[in-house]
């Protein structure tokens, strides 16, 4: 078991956004979270990450989780490889940069990266971190068509290696056999 929700409710600002949600993600599983703006997708991912407590129910994680959000996780003044080194073991940084086709930008300060390059850098952090559970909030935002294909391939590889993922996305992201959680 990598993630288990038992009858979970999520509340924000005194409003219950999600209730009675039960699901289980084991090795290779994925969940796709959909819903309109403000439905509670980001809040649900924060609950899955353990950053926000459930309003009701139980959340269990079998291991580490990596959360990708819109927030900038990297120090803007550091070079990309050093910024990533803050989050991951040094020997995992170069392979993660390669995986996201960012190796040529390793020495560039994070503040100079484009929107899509920043998003790729966020994904490189997730890849480098090696967590079993990937929690990706709008991971395709800012990515070009090749970037979306890359994201889909990385998700497939992660699942094939025994990982699991919960992805919230407005735009289509191929996530074969994913459980759909409609909010
Ligand atoms: N810290 C907070 N305090 C109070 N209300 C909040 C807080 N964070 C979010 N909310 C509210 O909770 C609701 C759900 O927000 P959330 O970001 O989870 O939605 P979302 O489905 O991810 O939306 P979007 O598609 O726009 O990203 C919104 O109405 C939002 O205003």
TrEMBL record:
Domain of life, per the record? Answer: Bacteria
Task: From the Swiss-Prot or TrEMBL record, give the protein name.
Answer: Heme ABC exporter ATP-binding protein CcmA
Supply the SUPFAM superfamilies for this chain: P-loop containing nucleoside triphosphate hydrolases
Query: Which NCBIfam families does the annotation name?
Result: ccmA (TIGR01189)
Residues spanning the membrane? none
A Pfam family assignment: ABC_tran
Q: Which organism is the protein's source?
A: Sphingomonas lenta
**GO MF annotations, alphabetized:** ATP binding; ATP hydrolysis activity; transmembrane transporter activity
Q: Which UniProt keywords apply?
A: ATP-binding, Cytochrome c-type biogenesis, Membrane, Nucleotide-binding, Translocase, Transport
A Gene Ontology biological process noted in the UniProt record is: cytochrome complex assembly
The record places domain ABC transporter at 3-181
Record keyword Membrane present: yes
